[in-house]
Design goal:
59 residues, five-stranded antiparallel sheet, single chain, Small, acid-soluble spore protein H, 1 helix, alpha+beta
Length: 59
């Protein structure tokens, strides 16, 4: 996924499905390096992880 699209998703109020390695995730923020983002799985777990935005896929 491109940086521009990550920023659009973060600023949108819509529920946009994004997947990381086949799992549905919420993007929490774009990191300062512009190449990674902090995300967590959709659902009750709030464990956050840093992911490469190139591996994020919009569904």
């Amino acid at each position: 996924m491109e940086v521009k699209r990550v920023k659009q998703i973060l600023s949108s109020s819509a529920d946009i499905e994004v997947q990381y390695n086949g799992a549905s995730v919420w993007i929490d923020n774009l990191n300062e390096d512009g190449q990674t983002a902090t995300a967590h799985l959709r659902g009750p777990l709030e464990e956050r992880t840093t992911v490469d935005i190139a591996e994020l896929e919009e569904k």
